[in-house]
Amino acid sequence: MDPVSATGIGLSVVSLALQVFSGWYQIFTEVADLPANYQHLRTRLRIEQSRHLNWGEQIGLLEDSLQLPSQVLRLHRNLVLDVLLEVSQAFASALRIAGKYEDLGVPDLQISKGSSPKQTRFLERAKSLWRASGQAASQLQWAMIKHEDFEALIVRLVGYNDAMESILDRSALEDLRIMQERSNLLLLQLTEEISHLHTLTEALDIKPPPATAVTNVTFQSLTFGGPASSAVQVSSLAAFKIQNISAPANFNGSDLYIQHGLSDIADPDHDKDRTMTVLDGKQVFVEWRTLVNANISIDDKHILETRLAKLALLLSREDKPVEFRSPRSAGYCKREIEDGIQYGLVYEVPSLGNAWVGIDTLRDAFAYSLRPTLTTRIRLANSMVESLLYLHAVNWLHKGFRSDNIIFASPVAGSIGSHEVLASPLISGFDFSRPDTSDEITVKSTSQARHDYYKHPQLLHHSTARSQKSHDIYALGIVLIELALWSPIETIMATILGKPLTTSRIPHIRERLLIAPYGDFADALAAVAAQAGEVYASVARRCIEGGPSLGIDTNANQADPVVAATLQRVFYDDVYLQLKSIRV
Fold first, then answer.
1. What values do phi and psi take at 554, rounded to 5?
2. Protein kinase domain: from which residue to which, for each copy (predicted)?
3. What residue ranges define each of the domains in the chain, with the CATH number in brackets?
4. What 3 state SS string does 356-409 have?
5. Can you say how many angstroms the Cα of residue 249 is from the centroid of all Cα atoms in its chain?
6. With left for phi above 0 and alpha for psi between -120 and 50, is residue 436 left, alpha or beta?
7. Which residues neighbour 522 within 8 Å (Cβ) at sequence distance 6 or greater?
8. What local confidence, expressed as pLDDT, does residue 131 receive?
């Protein structure tokens, strides 16, 4: 194709795209006097605008100069033009008013940032085009829209975006899925109010048409698990977040308190964290926690038991996000011990078709299993990172992330070495977990010395320090190092120190991992790089360093939505995606 023709293709398409964004999307997303029962449509419109921008970036539509349009844009020029025209006509058909849409304006519009610098520049160009045109009259009012056609408009836009995604190859579609997942998780992170979360779930529940009239193509994005599946995933997370930050009416948790039916919970060895037992004839395990302060007030005791009941309720839900990889809870219990009371979360043991199933931990595997292949270890690392990403996405802190809380169900206890068993980890050990909000009290449980190996120095130095997401991420970094070197952290530290790890040295674990020689290596992270590669080591280092390495100030208030959004973005891009990029 000659350059002149190519330029013509690029300019004709981008001109229409700028018109769509400088007019239709912005006018409709800023419509005035939108009733509350239609707010979910505005939310979905913004999501579809984000998708539109994302596929536009993938096909080269947002380039500052389209003198040499992309191959996709050259091959599918007519399709792209048709879709943009259909989008424009779909908006126009939803208006009651006669005349041209140019009679409307949004003079004070503040255009949102795109999910990439290229998208932000494109939106600014659209904004400048609108201002330069002098077309700025009155803002679109709800009365000017055909109310009955508004949802149909959104459905059509969903279909058009699905159609455009279908022209992308697998690589571009995966990039698009990542862009949309990032955008959706950011939206979820910044949505805090219950009413807004309900609006978000309603918005994400809008289904596309079976096919679009303009293209009549198979929606490839659905086949490959593209952006449409991301919307389903975030809808599930949003529903869980609602349950997380609100309790059912008149909730007191009594239905989840297990008083009878558990066998042998009066175990004399009350130092054990986990007890295998039977509940009403079914195999379960109990994870025990003992309060640091056994003499807490009646009010705080009530708060604690309500929190345990609420956590049991959340983890008992059949529709909880599968990415959490948490075992299903059956309730909570408590037992008297010499020093006070122990509380236990009761979990169902996954059925493997056997009469009895063993529960092993990653820490167990270090002791009596040969080092698995690097492929197996990286898959396991990906599973752990994904679980923490989605747990934090709903603002829930784990507070007990360590290798003895990465558990595996196996036909026989001790058979954890098989790749099949290691492929299905469960994340357990929720230590009085709580929502990450400033008004939630922190309840501390007693712990063995080895539990402190995974605690951030801030939690060890300051007895009143609140747990934060970065503390969970730090613990994840410790487990990533263990996984790469296939050794528990105390063994790794013994190599660094030249002697066994003592209690007095626990607060210095972070510092020693980052700067102290490890055998023949400059530091432990260099040894990790030798075992698992530079990318894996950089991910582990970022988790251990925290603070600026995670995009936030060391003392930032991580309960602040803006700080939390920044932390999530960096964790998603520089931990989650980096780890997923590793190919063995």
1. -55, -40
2. 240-563
3. 3-245 (1.20.120)
4. CCEEEEHHHHHHHCCCCCHHHHHHHHHHHHHHHHHHHHCCECCCCCCHHHEEEE
5. 28
6. beta
7. none
8. 58
pTM of the model: 0.84
Please name the amino acid found at residue 170. Answer: R
Quote the crossing angle between the two packed helices 39-58 and 227-245, to the nearest 10°: 140
Contacts of 403 by beta carbon, 8 Å cutoff, 6+ apart = 361, 362, 363, 366, 479, 482, 483, 488, 489
Contact 519, 495 (CB under 8 A): yes
State mean pLDDT over 59-86: 70
Residue entry with tokens 């390495």: 549
Span 533-557, mean pLDDT?
Answer: 96
Q: Which two tokens stand for residue 390?
A: 């989605």
Specify the range with the lowest mean pLDDT, choosing from 169-178, 338-347, 411-420.
411-420
In this structure, the chain runs to a length of 584
CA-based end-to-end distance of the chain: 40
The yes-or-no verdict on residue 267 having pLDDT over 60 is: no
* CB-based contact 437:245 (threshold 8 Å): yes
Q: What's the burial of 8, exposed, middle or buried (CB within 10 Å: 0-12/13-18/19+)?
A: middle
> Distance (Å, rounded) from C-alpha 277 to C-alpha 56?
56
Q: Which two tokens stand for residue 443?
A: 């309840």
| Confidence bin at 172 (pLDDT 50/70/90) | confident
Q: 10 Å Cβ neighbour count for 377?
A: 21
DSSP helix/strand/coil, 510: helix
Is 2's pLDDT higher than 70?
no
Q: Exposed, middle or buried: residue 529 (CB in 10 Å: 0-12, 13-18, 19+)?
A: buried
Q: Are 106 and 123 in contact (CB under 8 A)?
A: no
